[in-house]
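Late entry, evening session. Most of the bench is empty. Finally got around to the prediction I had been postponing all week. Sequence below, unchanged from the version circulated by S.P.
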Amino acid sequence: MTAPDRICVGAIVGSFGVRGEVRLKSFCADPEAIADYAPLYTEEGRGFDIRLTRAVKGGFAAELTGVSSKEAADALRGVKLYADRARLPSLPDDEFYHTDLINLLVVDTGGAEIGRVRAVHNHGASDLLEIHGPGLKEPLLLPFTRAAVPTVDIAAGRIVADPPEGLID
């Protein structure tokens, strides 16, 4: 279980070579900045210092402390890496870390409850909020745009949504 003050900044997608390097996918706006946020931690709390060695297709080859064989690197495939929030840059008022949106209550512009954010997805164009609620037959995928989500109030734990016409039955 990750500490609440940690943000997912990347994932190990496999090994690279035979000397224990890993293939690393960065989730950071500036992909190379992932190394600046070390040490990085697994969900279980294992920490790694990190050194990017080269850019590779889809990410970077990287050395992690304590990982010195291909087998050790292979064993980390699929592991997400987290950085302490304090090491990350502050965000402008209209930007949010995905983890801060999870579990927020979503209400419509009239104050009626729609549901809660379960996940944030990005399939290339823009972020989508996955919302689950008692009145929804299936999860609602709401575009995370200023038009569809005019208000995000992290402190109050809620989002005001104005879903596009026809999105909710």
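Two things to note before I forget:
The chain is about 5% helix and 40% strand.
The mean pLDDT is 90.
Will write this up properly tomorrow.
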